[in-house]
Amino acid sequence: MSQPATKYLLIQPGERICTRYECVPSYLQSQLIPNAKCFIDNDENGVIIDQQIEKHDLSIHYHLVQLNEGVELATIAPDKRYMSACISGFIENTSPVPMKMMLGKKEVNTQNGGTDTATMVTEKEFVVNFHVNLHLGYAKYLKDDYPIFKTLNTREADITKQPCPSIPYRLNEVNYQIMHRIRSCKLIGEVADVFFRRSALDFYFTYLRYLKAPAPLMLMEQHRQQLREIANFIIHHPSETTDKEDLCDRFHVATEFLEAPFEQEFLIPVEDLILQEKMAMAFNLITETSHTLSHIASIVKYNSWEELRMVFEKYYKTNIAELRSAQ
């Protein structure tokens, strides 16, 4: 019996030659991240679009995978110096957090000697795989600024010496939103570097909280749904969210409901999610508009531009004036 055809997904591929923009099929060009290196594996078995944003310590890998019928996918894990946090449409895909998409390829048929033409659109299903990889050798340098990295054994740059939970890391509204921001980002240069680094950290923080999470609480589905409603409100209305107490009043829930249950569901404390979404909104306003800092501060509900500047510069490890001048 013959073996099924296989395509290989490389999580830490090393040195390869990038695919030039003009060599990317036109129906896939809208999916490109301008600041990423792009590699395309396109053959009779399907298509893999591999986009990478690499730094010394953290790297982002956004894959779109289309497999032809009967073809299997084999994932080649990075070597033991890297620890990967991954969400995959091959494992989870729901309408609130879709990890699959249909992309159409237009084909023009010419008939009757070129006088008649007909355009057909052939749609194919692409599955999203998203990874943020940590080079474990750098974890010891990150723990001073970000104590959550103490979750890891920072003395050992070896994945076999790190925590290994028995339950899987799951897709949720928060890590999906971070991924969505990354794949939708059209920034380039130094501004993009600042954005992608903090976004990679935000994603990896959820994975580190997963590694140290206590035994899970048993939550009824109606309570999980209410938590999702609250998280979605924070994500989609960051300017309307001030603090945990405001959310308790708005959704008529007890403070305790937004503590352990919320963090278990989304791998982030509610206060951190409020800050994360406000900072993402502020970043867009600072880099993509000409609004004054005072106006931006009022939009994201800070008392003054000085307060916003202090919080923003600590969060992104950058200077607002330099960020605006680099646009």
UniProtKB/TrEMBL annotation:
The keyword Lyase is assigned to this record: no
Keyword DNA-binding among record annotations: yes
HTH araC/xylS-type domain: residues covered: 228-326
GO molecular function: DNA-binding transcription factor activity; sequence-specific DNA binding
Keywords on record: DNA-binding
InterPro entries: HTH_AraC (IPR018060)
Protein's name according to its UniProt entry: AraC-type DNA-binding protein
Organism: Chitinophaga arvensicola
